[in-house]
Amino acid sequence: MRLAELSERSGVSTATIKYYLREGLVPPGRQVNATTAEYDDGHLRRLRLVRALIQVGRVPVAKAREVLGHVDDESLGRTIRLGAALWALPQGPEPDEEDPAVPAARAEVDRLLALLDWDAAREVGALSPVHRSLVVAVATLNGLGYGWDAERLAPYAELMHAAARLDLDSLEAQASEAERVETAVAAAVLFEPVLRALHRLAQEEESARRYGIE
Amino acid sequence: MRLAELSERSGVSTATIKYYLREGLVPPGRQVNATTAEYDDGHLRRLRLVRALIQVGRVPVAKAREVLGHVDDESLGRTIRLGAALWALPQGPEPDEEDPAVPAARAEVDRLLALLDWDAAREVGALSPVHRSLVVAVATLNGLGYGWDAERLAPYAELMHAAARLDLDSLEAQASEAERVETAVAAAVLFEPVLRALHRLAQEEESARRYGIE
Predict the structure, then answer these.
(1) How confident is the model at residue A134, as a pLDDT?
(2) Which end of chain B is more exposed for a tag (fewer CB within 10 A), N or C?
């Protein structure tokens, strides 16, 4: 398809597509003559992902380029390729090592991983930005005096593990490795608000069931 | 306890406590003479919650005052009091009725609630800001071409329902109704980052188990 059709089908203006092409976020089309390039479904998919990252996830352009570089890196194994793409997404604040709640939270997180037999997560440990952001979140909760320890976190972690299994099952239904990594990145950006809203709606439902509506 | 001790035990400066008192976010102490007031554990708890809302949740002062007004309103039944406090928290963007993805998403959400027998959530429907933010999240996902329907959302909704049961079980362990509502509000602000980090860490763990680490 030509640029005009790519624009129409993706809902992204031709000016914005040209900007994404210049920034290297979308690979160039196949040049058919000096002024015309031809685009395919791969470009359409990539535009969708770029919009998810930049317009919905508010990921800065340079970060998006880094994430997409990992998505496209066929030299990596699947776990590393997925991890690299997801780790490149903006994460929360880093642990403040001056804060006494941080080492205590890290000890609880490590105890949690042992309790759950999450051996890969234990091995990767604080190398993973996700591990570090869990430490920050637990330190914030406990620094304010809400006592969350490994035992209290464990049933929630089990539920999130069940969610992760669903995530990977749906990844595996994708045709190509590139689509699998793209789907994972889109899900990380777009699906989190769905999960948060489902959780809050479930709280309302359960509260009404237990205590009535008045 | 006096103001100095309240400051020391809460980790909030006396200047900030005075500001919260002036703004009506923390109830006044019991005046023992013209210049001295006495504070108790209720004040300490309230300060913790105000910090969670304002410093961690970045809730504006006027919004925080509204949330706390519902927390303190003993005339309301438990579901309404919880709901009013949680609904007053900042929510995501409202559905854009001009966007054709919105009515389609709303139809899927309603079909999801029917599928799950979430009758209270169906009854409250779009009156709930949480319902509306779920519609927005699903519309965004599907507007970008990721096809999520009620059947695909349902197993995630069941997991979030299990999480909501854990949430309410721990609420019920609190001594007073005021503490229960306070705990619910703090959890909404402070526990969501924990849940998000647990989900991402579970994805890493499950990916490493399925595909290895290299």
Answers:
(1) 92
(2) C
Given CB atoms, is A38 within the 8 Å cutoff of chain B? Answer: no
CB A111 within 8 A of CB B23: no
3-state secondary structure A108-141: HHHHHHHHHCCHHHHHHHHHCHHHHHHHHHHHHH
| A160 and B CB contact within 8 Å | yes
Q: In which band, very low, low, confident or very high, does the pLDDT at B180 lie, cut at 50, 70 and 90? A: confident
Map out the domains of chain B with their CATH numbers: 3-86 (1.10.1660.10), 91-211 (no CATH)
Structure tokens at A1: 């398809």
Q: Are B134 and A201 in contact (CB under 8 A)?
A: yes
Closest CB to A168 among B138, B186, B207: B207
Chain B residue with CA closest to A57: the answer is: B140
- Which residue is listed with tokens 């889109």? A186
**Low-confidence stretches of chain A (pLDDT beneath 70):** 214
A211 vs B78, B128, B160: nearest CB: B78
Bridge pairing between strands B30-33 and A36-38: unpaired
Radius of gyration for chain B, computed over Cα atoms and rounded to the nearest angstrom: 21
